[in-house]
Automatic annotation (TrEMBL), chain A:
One of its GO terms (biological process) is transmembrane transport. Pfam families: BPD_transp_1. Its main location: membrane. It is a multi-pass membrane protein. InterPro entries: MetI-like, MetI-like_sf. This is Taurine ABC transporter permease. It comes from the Bacteria. The keyword Cell membrane applies. Belongs to the binding-protein-dependent transport system permease family.
TrEMBL record, chain B:
It is a multi-pass membrane protein. GO terms for biological process: transmembrane transport. Gene3D superfamilies: MetI-like. Keywords: Cell membrane, Membrane, Transmembrane, Transmembrane helix, Transport. Belongs to the binding-protein-dependent transport system permease family. It is found in: Cell membrane. This is ABC transporter permease. One of its GO terms (cellular component) is plasma membrane. InterPro entries: MetI-like (IPR000515), MetI-like_sf (IPR035906). Signal peptide: none annotated. The lineage of its organism: Bacteria, Pseudomonadati, Pseudomonadota, Alphaproteobacteria, Hyphomicrobiales. Residues 55-235 form the ABC transmembrane type-1 domain. It comes from the Bacteria. The chain crosses the membrane at residues 62-83, 95-115, 121-140, 180-197, 217-236.
Amino acid sequence: MTSAGDGNTTVKLPAEALQGQRTSSAYRLALGDAGVQAAVILFLCVLWETVTRLDLVHPFLLPPLSQVLQRLWEDILSGTVFVDLALTLYRALSGFFIAAAIAIPLGVLMSRSAALRWFFDPLISVGFPMPKIAFLPIFILWFDIFDTSKIIMVAFSCFFPIVTATFAGTSAVDKWPVWSARSLGAKDREVLWEVVLPLASPQIITGLQIALPVGMITTVVTEMLMGGRGIGGTMITAGRFADSVGVFTGIVEIAFLGFVVIRSLEYIRGRLLVWHPESRR
Amino acid sequence: MYSPILRYVPLLLMLVFWQLLTVSGLVPPEMLPGPLTVAGALWDLIVSGELVTNAVRSLSRAAAGLVAAIVVGIAAGLFMATFRPFRLLVNPIVQIFYPMPKSALIPLVMIWFGLGDSSKIFLIFLGCLLPVIVSTYNGARGVNHFFRWSAASLGATKWEVLREVVIPAAMPDILAGCRTALAFSFILMVSSEFVIAKDGVGFLISSLGDSGTYPAMFAVIFTVAAAGFAADRLYAAFARNQLRWREP
């Protein structure tokens, strides 16, 4: 982007200069908004601390922010927060990637083979809206309470959004690019890799973006139910022992993890689809 | 497309496969009870009334939380899209809490409200609220300015513009957000009842699992899954009906 004060460009067309000014003023407006929003967050934090210091709410229901931050700092120093975050992240991401590794090829195959479509379409359309978490006791029964059942549960919940999105995306690919590639002599496999998958990738990535939060929710629930380490397990232990500072510390940690994971996926989407018109907005 | 019966043949095939698997003795029956055993257990649960009472408890909680979330969420989303100070105030909070896995709030509602109904209702409300706010806000923000300006130039008041232009134009997004919220309400209902409850279908599943009556546990699990499926299909039909004025 050329900005109005950019000295490197030699000649500037009026339209371009105008555009530069417009973007820079829009940028300034956005910056102002960001400032106000940061102030709001800061204000809420101060409000939290003041309200608790003045004893307006019971410290058990809402412990002071300073205590929560202090606990967080202790957990960082002792390293427990990293163990919890790493375990939760490991379970969520392994399940997510296993689901993607099965669901994306299946979705592509379903759009290419009528027999597979006939068999899997009703199973997936029935499975998609079901609350998958209800099946957790079955997975506990089959695979015990350790990582295997947790990861399989996460993969099971992530599977349906991804396969649905992949199937929808690959079947809706415009016929003209496919025909053009064929007429230029592309083989089936080249058409798949060079035309169909790139054109379907926005929808596939949307499916992944739906699946990942679902996977995180599922990971936390499995950890709460089966106990042990991981943020969910640590939080539910804190809850059972009426350690409200521990619960709030856990919420801060999981909010941070969720934010980082979701934002990273958004960033990856931007990088992967940099060629796509949606990135040019 | 195929006729509906032919379409669901694969589901039937899976059931037959399941029955054969248990009859053949390849899997131990306590690990996977056969479909007929599960159906028998389901019938017993229905006759004893256990399933119905727990299902009513669960569904009423889910409905209470979901309806509250939809009402508050649509109002907040519309307000965010039309009123800048409110947007600046609420947006940072939404941005922080939107990516957070909502099930992490289970210990929090346990501390705040104990084990009764209110903790689950509040959890479902919070979990469903953000998808509704975000989709309403995005829908209302994306309304073509020319529609609003034309309505305003024809003398519509702000309230009329909102009611006659913005809400109908944002309706597809709002309905999609509510569908996400519906799915979340089922997930949060079941998972919160697994962890903190004295009744409800989630509690029924875990107590049947703890006592080792697996056919009944499978029966309740499949009932919950079927209920989630049915709710989604009913909602989809309702949404299609609401949007029938749109071009296909």
